[in-house]
Amino acid sequence: MSKKNKKNYSRISSTKKQDPPVRLNITFEEAMIKALNTRLLLKTSAKKDSDSSR
User: Fold this and answer.
1) Degrees (nearest 5) of the Cα angle 15, 28, 19?
2) Residue 52 phi/psi, 5° resolution?
3) Which residue from 13, 12, 32 is spatially nearest to 24, judged by alpha carbons?
């Protein structure tokens, strides 16, 4: 059990070392995509509301 945990931990730490630069890139892209998605969602939901109110 402990042997397995040790293996997992070493794998996690090794991935963490090379993480930051890549992560920054991804988070920025994710943020942009999220912003666009929320804007689209708001637009579509507003359209739906106006359609149903008519």
Assistant:
1) 10
2) -75, -30
3) 32
The number of C-alpha atoms within 13 Å of 18 and in the hemisphere containing its C-beta is: 4
What's the pTM? 0.37
Tokens matching residue 32: 């942009």
Tokens of 17: 């070392």
What are the structure tokens assigned to 38, written together? Answer: 């929320």
> Tens digit of pLDDT for each residue in 2-46?
566 666 666 656 555 555 555 666 788 888 999 999 999 888 887
Dist CA 24 CA 2 (whole Å):
33
- Geometric angle at alpha carbon 31, from 28 and 34, rounded to 5°: 150
The CA distance from 46 to 36, in Å, is 15
